Amino acid sequence: MGILIDQSKKLCTIQTAHSTYQMGVGTYGHLLHYYYGPYAEGDFSAMLRFRDRGFSGNPYEAGNDRTYSMDTLPHEFSTFGSGDFRTPACLVKDDHGVYGADLRFVSAEVKPGKYSLPGLPAAFASEANPYNDRNGFSRDLYSVSHDKENTEIDHTTETLIITLADSTVGLTVKLLYGVFPEIDVITRSAILTNTGNKTIYIDKADSASLDFLTGDFDFVHFSGRYGTERLYHREAITEGVKSISSIRGESSHQQSPAAILCAKNTTEESGAAYGIALLYSGNFKLSVELDQFGSTRFSAGLNDEMLSYDLTPGEELTLPEAVLSYASGFAALSQHYHDLVNFHIVHGAWTHEDRPVLLNSWEGCYFDFDGEKVIQLAANAKDLGIDLLVMDDGWFGKRDDDTSGLGDWVTNEKKLGMPLSELAKRIHALPMKFGIWIEPEMVSEDSDFYRAHPDYAFVIPGKKPVRSRYQLVLDFSRREVVDAVLTKIVETLKPAKPDYIKMDMNRSIHEVYSQIAGYQNRGKLLHQYVLGVYDFITRLKEAFPEVLIEGCSGGGGRFDLGMMYYTPQIWLSDNTDAIERLSLQYGASFFAPVSTMGSHVSAVPNHQTGRSTPLATRAIVAMAGSFGYELDPAKLSDEEKDAIRTQIKIFKNYQLLIQGGRYYRLTGPSLGITHTEGYSATGYTAPEAAMAWEIVSADAKRALVSIVTKDQHCNPPVCYIKLKGLFMNQMYRISIVLKSTDFLDRREEEALTAPAYTGAILMQGGIAVPYFAGEYQSILLSVYQA
Ligand code: DGJ
Residue 506: CB within 6 Å of ligand 1? Predict the structure, then answer.
């Protein structure tokens, strides 16, 4: 495993435990992509064929040879200007506005360790899995699910640097590859440097571009909308370009910077699956192009809309990191990303600690609170076994609704009736942890901060700004703006000694105009804005090194792997309806581990949908995330309070397994386009009847299985759900940890819990979804070695 450079053949091969990635230098010095897929050895340049293709030009050096065309060969980092007409990885314009870059290979070198990217999030090497040795977890998470025979795991990471250059345009590109061999992950980034003596403009820049000579693929992406983020979509790739992107200044609720290219027959269990995910929280574009000869190009990078990044001589642009992984089946692919996020992206306080169970004030009282009410919320929460009280929006400036106050990061002592430090002290004295909400990137027009610094906001001179939630976006591309906001927030929060900060962001960016640099930097402004946001969080974390920071953007507007680098958990969605959350958590689970997904139990009827679901169902769904509550405990009956006390005990008992175990989707469309897995023979499909998921311990001795029933029908057939990740010949027993209602027939409960089952029965036969009366019932099962 590792990076192999064959200098004589000019071949670079990256080997991970189960995948191989290969590129090489073509006859005229272009860097060509030969192979990415299951582990293989050999020189894949043998696959290339050279034919004379009309309207596909040839490098000048090829002379009269019309068979060598950049338009038909597979590339590693294609530019418009070399003769390739497919989606370029890079579009470079010189100071006359001419596009003509033609990059040629200069060198390749391998360095130990993983590169980092200044100012940008990047996966890092970590020595050990922090979950090892805790509560009976085996030494290695990989020994079970990836390769049962292999206990020798290579934890080393390496970096490959390939340098390409075009001396005419004056551009040097350093392609960076980070290799995490044991989790089959290859990261990519690039540093673009102006090595000429005139300004050049980067009008498009992909972090990674992958060419596949063969393959008939589907494209899986996670599109949605506010309140309904990251829904699973799978579609066939047809000729032309399909892209998903954001130009909102944030990665967005609507599209996600993570997608999968997969074979037609790929299911959870098997079939080629290629993931690509950007560690980036701003404007991005992922695209798939099926070209004239059936080759596919899959690329990810900065969105080229509104991008024209000027590089003066000597200046460089570092591109966000893209994370690639190959796996057989979606389950293994997701587990690669879960491990990458858990052990190589998330870092800082609370990363691998048991996260506190929290009560967030938002749906409990919105803006309608004072200090005594918040302290009462905390006391009531403590009585239920909750660890942390979060005071959400409304504690600062003039902020009794969302029309004013953003930017004024001073405690509204009149509203609270006390200083923030006193409120926090009284909560800490309960004892309870104390958390607080901020929205640093925004300013209300009705605020002292805006009145003092109108130029700090993105506004186009002479044009009224687009309004969104009555607020404007601050120009975080400017250091002094970040400094001003950060200084004030730190000064206000420090005396309160918070344990948790929720960092929100509640509108997209329309006005791409910096008051200080005017039009001059509009082509780089939104990237620099994202760098400013990362700088803000980095320095916020330095100011509060022990604090757990939860990301948020009206729920999941910035739920991306870039933000996960800074915030170990992110509020998944403002939609807290347990049944809607099933699809949201399902979609998010393809790239994000449950530890990152903020999930709360809220009151019924649900505030977003009006739907009522049993309390246990809401808890079972929220437990597949960083768990908490978002309601007013004073409005609960004694019976509900007791139920919540039990839920919290259950969650804490299983928290380590939930945060550190292997996650499997047991139902849903990804189980197979043939719709056989997890479905009953009668055509009564599991996703209609129920959603189910499973978290398995590293040693496969324990698992938690959650099943939530959805539609209810008269006289339904039995629906079976096949478990995953267990040992075939091991005997297991099942106990009921939590259920929303009793079984209609007690004999069904006995049939589930009395016998011991082999793993084979549970995985190849399946367990029957209980026949419950009523909709939205649920059950949480513990499966353990008999
Ligand atoms: C949007 C968030 O997603 C909510 O949880 C809440 O914090 C509100 N903002 C407060 O304005």
Answer: yes
The CATH superfamily label for domain 664-785 reads Golgi alpha-mannosidase II (2.60.40.1180)
Mutate to test the pocket of ligand 1, among 393, 403, 570 (most ligand atoms within 8 A of CB): 393
In this structure, which residue's CA is closest to atom 2 in ligand 1?
A: 554
**CA-wise closest residue to 248 among 222, 279, 285:** 285
Which fold, 90-123+153-343? Beta-galactosidase; Chain A, domain 5 (2.70.98)
Q: What fold does the segment set 358-571 form as a domain?
A: TIM Barrel (3.20.20)
Please tell me the distance from the alpha carbon of residue 598 to that of residue 602, in angstroms, as a whole number: 13
> How far, in Å, CA of 641 to CA of 691, rounded?
27
Residue 322 has pLDDT above 70, yes or no: yes
How many CA atoms within 13 Å lie on the side-chain side of 267? 14
Q: What is the pLDDT of residues 197-210, one digit of tens each?
A: 999 999 999 999 99
Cβ–ligand 1 contact at 390 (below 6 Å): no
The preferred substitution site among 444, 573, 574 for testing ligand 1, maximizing ligand atoms within 8 Å of CB, is 574
235 CA from centroid of ligand 1 (Å): 33
Burial 33-49 (b: 16+ CB within 10 A, else e): bbbbbeeeeeebbeeee
Query: Which amino acid is present at 2?
Result: G
**How far apart, in whole angstroms, are the C-alpha atoms of residue 161 and residue 366?**
51
687 or 497, which is more confident? 497
| Cα of 395 from ligand 1 centre, angstroms | 13
Q: What is the largest CA-CA distance in the chain?
A: 87
Q: Which residue has the tokens 């066939």?
A: 236
Which atom of ligand 1 sits closest to the CA of residue 402? Answer: 11
pLDDT for 726 equals: 97
CA nearest to 493, candidates 395, 366, 605: 395
Q: Are strands 626-630 and 358-360 parallel, antiparallel or unpaired?
A: parallel
Q: How many helices (H) and strands (E) does the chain have?
A: 16, 38
DSSP string, 729-782: T-EEEEEEEEESS--SSHHHHHHHHSS-EEHHIIIII-EEPP--SSSS-EEEEE
> Hunting for tokens 């990635």 — which residue is that?
21
Residue 588 and residue 510: Cα distance in Å, rounded? Answer: 27
Does 128 score more than 50 pLDDT? no
Q: Which residue has the tokens 């055509």?
A: 683
Mean pLDDT in residue range 292-311: 96
Q: How many CA atoms lie within 13 A of 98 on its CB side?
A: 9
Q: Which residues contact 297 (CB under 8 A, 6 or more apart)?
A: 78, 86, 87, 209, 210, 211, 212, 287, 288, 289, 291
Strand partners, 692: 707
Nearest CA to ligand 1 atom 11: 393
- Boundaries of every domain in the chain: 90-123+153-343, 358-571, 664-785
Q: How many A from CA of 226 to the centre of ligand 1?
A: 12
Pocket test for ligand 1, best of 401, 437, 468, 549 (most atoms within 8 A of CB): 437
Closest CA to 561 of 392, 339, 354: 339
Q: Which two tokens stand for residue 48?
A: 């290339």
In degrees, rounded to 5, the angle at the alpha carbon of residue 690 between the alpha carbons of residues 685 and 691 is 110
Nearest partner of 391 among 359, 418, 425, 429, judged by Cα: 359
